[in-house]
């Protein structure tokens, strides 16, 4: 069994690794895969494993698994953002006052009075705005699952403790030794302010990244008009059953997949086919949930409802795809698993090294350097680099009627240099009005799909050669290849021959995509690096394929490849900048170059900017 659940409390790659490790150890669980950007986890487990058992297993680590289907997670996230905004405002107001007191811009009396006031304000900011950091730090340390909260919690407590010591004992301890001392309350408050601000901006940006799923879910209506005898009543869509009769009028969306029972209407099916022109539906025609009635009124007999509709299947496919992990993410996961513990060790080494190098008078500097290391080494950017790009890329593909099954397919699609296509139903459209004992010329039996030659030329320009493989007669296949501008064709082939062609190209070092729409293509589809099916093909082909193109527009083939290349390029950009940020910032914060000083406040600002830059960079995929 495979199920997905929202998770509350994840903030960074370290958190994601902790959730995966915790759930992965639960009895009966085979694998747990976290999508940090979507705040979800997909769990493969035995049928006997209950959601409550999974929730209990994760609760001890400080995270909440949402198992209540009636719970409005989107509304909860919106409320959480409002609470986060309030905490950000308090942190900035408190931080500004603390900084004014610490820097001498504001004075309420003697130095001790100023420091004492700053201490109380800082304590208030830490208790209100930063309370989640400390609660999660305790849990993470207890369960030995360190995350971003651990770094923030340790760094702010360290600066606060040093400042409290200096407030009460600085004059008596440091001054007799000839050491100038200061308090650093502003570091604790500003770290909290910057980190929370970064999270607030990230949450809003990630909301944009997840907009594709929300847009698809918005296609499904909440209410339907149920026909019972002569009465028509409004009922929740969730209560509909197979066989129910539903009335749908102009301005309504179809709530079910079904067959028109009576009436006729023009229906906009662009969300499935991408075609903007409404099509007429009459008695006996099939209709799909989420499509829009432009004019007319029809009554529909429900065939598939709820989770069984095509729209629900598309939403589930996109959600699973966005939650899957690209092969490159495995490297990131291995790094994230040891990142936070490594940072803590580096901070301790920094503390000891500065203390040994400078003697007792170097204690303040040693503590500040160690705190800067803890703050600047945020793994958030690293954890967000891949999943945000996948969410945006796959979401954009779904909006454009390109359904990508998983991240591995997306990563493989960008590298293909050979495409094997079936003929009938892919490059050609059969004339269904003809019979096989009819005496009709060959050229009139089939019509070339629109823009076939143009698409083949586009693929050639992208470095992708096309092969045509069909079980049809040699003259029919040769004619089709000539019309489409395909240089390589095979006729009279069986399903095994198609698979052999794919494997032969692979043996030559080619990265091969196979495109087909029939049962006879399933072997070759399974053998290819990437398998592509047309949305109007057989269920077997669509189930086998990693990429499904809804409708008949062949332009979606080069478009899918181009979108894949852009998404993978974005992932690599994000990972590069995330790694480079830590490679440069960590040594500077530790004081490898003594003349370059990164104080805790600056470190927190840099950390917030690094995460935000990754998310904003990814959102460019929606515009290019």
Number of helices: 21
Please count the beta strands (DSSP E, at least 2 residues each). Answer: 20
Distance between the termini: 38 Å
Parts with pLDDT < 50 across at least 5 consecutive residues? 432-436
Radius of gyration: 30 Å
In percent, how helical is the residue content?
Answer: 40-55%
Shape: elongated
Count structural domains.
3
Overall pLDDT score: 80
Main sheet? Answer: 7 strands, antiparallel
Strand fraction equals 15-25%
Structural class: alpha+beta
Short description:
Helix content is 53%, strand content 16%.
Description:
By secondary structure, this protein is an alpha+beta fold. It has 3 domains: 76-212 and 318-388 and 572-622, no CATH class; 221-308, Calcium-transporting ATPase, cytoplasmic transduction domain A (Distorted Sandwich); 402-552, Rossmann fold, CATH 3.40.50.1000. The protein is 53% helix and 16% strand. It has 21 helices and 20 strands. The strands form 4 sheets. Strands 5, 6, 7, 8, 9, 10 and 11 form a 7-stranded antiparallel beta sheet that branches. Strands 12-20-19-18-13-16-17 form a 7-stranded mixed beta sheet, with helices on both faces. Strands 2-3-1-4 form a 4-stranded antiparallel beta sheet, with helices on both faces. Helix 4 (111-128) runs antiparallel to helix 6 and helix 11 packs antiparallel against helix 12. The chain is elongated and about 110 Å long.
